[in-house]
Design brief:
alpha/beta, globular, 5 strands, binds zinc ion, 41% helix
């Protein structure tokens, strides 16, 4: 069996990487999680103001998806984000908007899903529209 990969568009914050990786590997039956990191990634994607960052994220996601045959892409937001001061409700709205942006890239994937990292930064849950 070839190894399976997912891709996570996540914040740069080192505190959340392990929780996100474990959550995805446990719940989505993949072996590895490619990381595409940007400070406050959900905000950057939802607002779309930083075109250079947006294009960079897109390029790196495409590289992962095409090179590793990724079927599940995740957009992550987390409690206590240095780059995204919005509260939990607002950040979850940004994640939903970010999913729509990533969907518009027409990637050959099956799922584009949101993840919220809870206060404490050890556990996650899916963010549903
Ligand atoms: Zn952050």
């Amino acid at each position: 069996m070839p190894e399976k990969f997912a891709a996570a568009i996540n914040c740069i914050d080192g505190r959340v990487q392990q929780a996100v990786r474990s959550f995805i590997i446990t719940n989505f039956e993949v072996d590895h999680v490619d990381k595409i990191t940007e400070a406050g990634a959900n905000k950057v994607l939802a607002e779309g103001l930083d075109k250079i960052a947006l294009e960079s994220i897109k390029k790196r996601v495409e590289f992962s998806v095409n090179g590793h045959n990724v079927k599940d892409v995740f957009v992550v937001g987390h409690f206590g984000c240095l780059a995204n001061p919005a509260d939990e409700d607002e950040q979850k709205k940004q994640i939903i908007k970010a999913i729509a942006v990533v969907s518009s890239w027409n990637l050959p994937v099956e799922n584009i899903l949101g993840i919220w990292v809870h206060k404490g930064l050890k556990t996650c849950s899916l963010v549903m529209p």
